[in-house]
Amino acid sequence: MKPLLSMIKRTFIILVIFTAMAFVFPSMSSARYDPSLSWYTVSTQNFTIYYPEGHELVAQRVLSLSKEVYKDVTGYLMVQPRT
Hints:
alpha+beta; two-stranded antiparallel sheet
């Protein structure tokens, strides 16, 4: 039961982060692409995060959380996605 609560807690935290980002950066949430921004990418085997210049710390945090959530979800579901 404890791993399930941990997974739910992490999922909730990620949801809060993305919701907060939508309020902090409303112009980004309403537009698909702002050509004046310089965009960067950070990747792992399972995830790719795109972020604008100046948001490196947020991208790294989201990436580190996504790794934990990936491990929890694949462990809970006992399924690995196809690569």
